[in-house]
Amino acid sequence: MNAIQTEHIQLNVGSFCLSDISLHIPKGKLTAIVGPNGSGKSTLLKTIAQLLKHDSGDIYLEGQSIKGLRPKAFAQKLAMMPQSKQTLPNLTVKELIHFGRAPYKKWFDRMNDEDQDIIEWAMNITNITKYAERMFYTLSGGEQQKVRIALALTQRTPVLLLDEPTTYLDIAHQLEVLNILEEINRHEKTTIIMVLHELQQAAAYCDYLLAMKQGKLIHWGEPNSLLSSQFLKEVYHIDAKVMYEDGYPLIIPLKKQQLSTRMHA
């Protein structure tokens, strides 16, 4: 079964549009959406998460049309971590993470033992337990990003969307976040779909890549079969070589001197 399926999605936002997006995202896999800036990666993610309403087409979540899902039922199946520039309340980390249980609660319901166990699990797996009583905005960028992931995990959904989870982080925090997501995927079988800019990281951590350009889905497949010099030229308009080390692709951009040599060869 596919975790996510879209059929002929069309969305117009100002001068930008998603055009005829039909895709199938396998259940229980890690998938990255890649492409140049402004290609529609975040717009597609927000459309799947129902933060943007598409004009036409259908979206299916684990085989069920989302048209028939009430908001709480939808939030029990799919969680989304938006870009880090979105403002969160300045609460303690533990207070903030409690909000992830909202889809399972009525007004004024107290947290029960199951809720507390899930909150503790989410904080443990993201290594933020030691920050439980810290105010959110006293944390570093990398620490805040792990809190955002824990907040999404607390919804305990089978599908998790993340919009640029590694952006603005240094390389150490980028890898820490990706290792956490890989562990969640492998151990919890959570379907994870995320927007990534770093292609080599996407290839190293993800089972599948979706490549977008100008609002269209132009390529889909496993990283090792997809990444090539031709792919990089078509999607990003760059000249680069793709080499392999221990089974993983390495992207090596060509310098101007190399380009000149190739052009005059």
Structure notes:
- Its main location: membrane.
- It is a peripheral membrane protein.
- This protein is an alpha/beta fold.
- The protein folds into two domains: 1-77 and 159-228, P-loop containing nucleotide triphosphate hydrolases (Rossmann fold); 85-156, no CATH class.
- 34% of the residues lie in helices and 28% in strands.
- It is built from ten helices and twelve strands.
- The chain has helices at residues 41-48, 71-75, 93-98, 113-125, 141-153, 171-188, 199-205, 223-226, 229-236, 256-263; strands at residues 2-13, 16-26, 30-34, 56-61, 64-65, 78-81, 159-163, 191-195, 208-213, 216-221, 240-245, 248-253.
- Strands 6-7-8-3-9-10 form a six-stranded mixed β-sheet, with helices on both faces. A four-stranded antiparallel β-sheet has the order 2-1-4-5, with helices on one face.
- Strand 11 (240-245) and strand 12 form a beta hairpin.
- Helix 4 (113-125) packs antiparallel against helix 5 (141-153).
- The longest helix is centred in the last third of the chain and has 18 residues, at 171-188.
- The mean pLDDT is 92.
